[in-house]
Amino acid sequence: MTAPESAAGAAADTGAGTAVRIAAVGDIHMGEESRGLLRPAYETLSGCADVLLLAGDLTRHGTADEARVVADEIAGLPVPVVAVLGNHDHHGDRPDEIAAILRASGAAVLEGTSTVVQAGPYRLGIAGSKGFGGGFAGRCGSDFGEAEMKSFIRYSRRLADGLRDALTEVADCDVRVALTHFSPVADTLAGEPPEIYPFLGSYLLAEAVDDAGADLAVHGHAHAGTERGMTGGGVLVRNVAQPVIRRAFAVYELHPRAARQAAPA
Amino acid sequence: MNTSLLEYRIAGLQRRLAEDGTAELGIRVEARSGLVLVHGTVPSTACRDELLEVIAAELDGLPVRTDIALVEALAPDHPEVLS
Ligand SMILES: [Fe+2]
Ligand SMILES: [Fe+2]
Q1: Residue of A63, A253, A255 for testing the chain B interface, max B β-carbons within 10 Å
Q2: pLDDT tens for residues A119-173?
Q3: Do the domain assignments include residue B15?
Q4: 3-state secondary structure at position A247
Q5: Quick one: how far is CA A264 from the chain centroid?
Q6: Does B23 touch chain A (CB under 8 A)?
Q7: Coiled coil located at which positions (chain A) (predicted)?
Q8: Residue A12 burial by CB count (10 A; 0-12/13-18/19+): exposed, middle or buried?
Q9: Across the interface, do B79 and A7 touch by the CB < 8 Å criterion?
Q10: CATH of domain A19-256
């Protein structure tokens, strides 16, 4: 690899200590052919972010070899790495092994669980689940009929419940982020064919986020969607699928409530 | 069964892109007047070459236009400040 040419210049060191700076990307779909592609950009993270969130679909086919490419890409980064898996990471039917390989490189891999990262003076709580499909309120599948249909919807509900519980675990943090692969809202799917929305996300995730509370919800999966959206309860949503953000990662600066209240208007 | 109908050829390509090793679920294949448009974003030039090969084989004999972008791997030049 050649030396990284830092494109993070303008972002460098802004917001350090006064904001929680969240770098996030999903759908990096790595394989042997993309080894090293993202590393130069990731090495600029110490200047612009407190954490790197990976929103699933880290591999192409969910193989151990591909997971090792991802693990090498994120090993020893200057900021903590927190990930959820995506549907591609499940394709090889060995999600636990994929998660273990990523954990061995230092990443936290969440599924119905949470982790806390120290971001300057603030505690950042991250709750994660892959999530699943089913569709959005008024246009979604039901837990009814064939066994396959019921298991589809029950699986989606189980993961959404896991996200709710995980967000509740970190209720005392200054800032909370919900990290999923599937989308909690339809807003960020704009650009995808409406007919496939039920395969791209579930309102159950948004309901969990609104019930338990969060400052930001980050997801991937919808490669042709758009970046910005909001839950019914007013939580900001960002689709960070790499084809959407068109960068190695996006950075979001959040100002914790306490800091906002203390600051003069 | 007429598997040469355009809509089945398009569905066949999308199924093959997802299931047969390329694992490209984010690629759109659309019938436009007079041609088939295939567009989307892939992670590497190797993936793009693989994709173009499958498209050529699966849509052989049809007028095809492809618009396949590569993901951009640069760090962002500024954060989004959320309020
Ligand atoms: Fe993806
Ligand atoms: Fe996905």
Answers
A1: A253
A2: 999 999 999 999 999 999 889 999 999 999 999 999 999 999 999 999 999 999 9
A3: yes
A4: coil
A5: 32
A6: yes
A7: none
A8: middle
A9: no
A10: 3.60.21.10
